[in-house]
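Q: Convert this sequence to structure tokens.
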Amino acid sequence: MIESGPLYEALVALYRELRGKTKEQWQRDLPFAELLFDRWERAKSLGFGEDASIYHSSYVYGDVRVGKNSWIGPGVLLDGSGGLVIGDHCSISAGVNIYTHDSVKWALSGGRAEYERAPVSIGNCCYIGSQTVIVKGVTIQDHSVIGACSFVDRDIPPYTVAFGIPCKPAGRVQIDAQGNVTLVLDTCDKD
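A:
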């Protein structure tokens, strides 16, 4: 690592300046790349919808389409090798991994079998909780919530609250005419 010289000193000065401004304005401390590069510009360069954003620590592979006003958090992996669509007004939390392929049969066959691919679709107005894994072939319909640390291996209906390993529906999303949201969890009798 170079610890002296004009380039190093200029980078350190820039880092300190950007870090100070970010702390003052947003009360955040981010890695240098996140301070230096604009999340909205990156989303635009990837062809995502208007006002979408994606952190620079996130990975994007293959055919990934993201709608307007969607937020892709830090440390997210978007595998579009089988086709991935994320709708408008979605929030994909930190550390989410979405896969549209797997190499299970390829590995078990010593490379004789092909990778398996199937598209993933996430509807409009969905929230995907932190550290969730979504596998190939899954559709999550509009206005659904997936709880943190879930493993999603099946389709999720619209207006559904779902979580767990494996992820299962556990309630519903209600939205009134004024836009107020209520999450109603199913209850069970413990007789």
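The first strand starts at residue 53 and ends at 54.
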